[in-house]
């Protein structure tokens, strides 16, 4: 039997106790039901800033890069800050290169305090192109995030949950295809 697809989740907040942390959990549940293994990168001891002295030799950076290297697919979930991805997400992406991410699939999600839009998703799509990742067309933006989850942490709008399921299916299928080409 083929080895399980390994999915790395990267959150655009320091704590995964956030709307984006919750979205990653929901996406992971769908991926796991499709036989994938999921690992969430823990930003609680944050990476240094790219460009800080010695940043490329930092142990947490090496661990981040090694986790990425051993993954077949990625889910990025970022809050929208001033019309784009958070600084935490951008800094994490800046520590990746095509060495870790070439021919691997990506899925994108974002949350917004206001109306749903695709700014953050589009900006993350551009960054991922620069590290030679393949972003699946399905994507999820959760607007009005403060009222988007119920008391159990599930999405109030079942259609969003189904979008995440379809996105997960596409991520796993494309990761399997791309792994066969590596
Ligand atoms: C600095 C900052 C900028 C923000 N800019 C936007 C914005 O441009 N558009 C928007 O809809 N919400 C904006 N928000 C609200 C965040 O998107 C919202 O708090 C976030 O999606 C919640 O997700 P989290 O719980 O994972 O942090 C902003 C929040 C902060 C702190």
Structure explained in plain terms:
The chain is α/β, with parallel strands linked by helices and 182 residues long. The chain has one domain (6-181): Flavodoxin domain (Rossmann fold), CATH 3.40.50.360. It is built from 6 helices and 6 strands, in the order βαβαββααβαβα. Strands 1, 2, 3, 4, 5 and 6 form a 6-stranded mixed beta sheet that branches. β3 and β4 form a beta hairpin. α1 packs across α6 (158-181). It starts with 5 loop residues before the first strand and ends with a helix. Flavin mononucleotide binds at residues 13, 18-20, 79-83, 111-114, 145.
Radius of gyration: 15 Å
Count of domains: 1
Q: State the low-pLDDT regions, or none.
A: none
- Span of the ends, CA to CA: 18 Å
The CATH superfamily is identified as: Flavodoxin domain
Outline:
The protein is an alpha/beta fold and 182 residues long. It has helices at 19-33, 59-69, 87-94, 98-101, 119-130, 158-181, and strands spanning 6-11, 37-40, 73-81, 84-85, 105-111, 134-142.
Features:
41% helix; Rossmann fold; 20% strand; 182 residues; single chain; globular; alpha/beta; binds flavin mononucleotide
SSE layout:
Blueprint: E1 6-11, H1 19-33, E2 37-40, H2 59-69, E3 73-81, E4 84-85, H3 87-94, H4 98-101, E5 105-111, H5 119-130, E6 134-142, H6 158-181
Parallel strand pairs: 1-2, 1-3, 3-5, 5-6
Antiparallel strand pairs: 3-4
Flavin mononucleotide binds at residues 13, 18-20, 79-83, 111-114, 145.
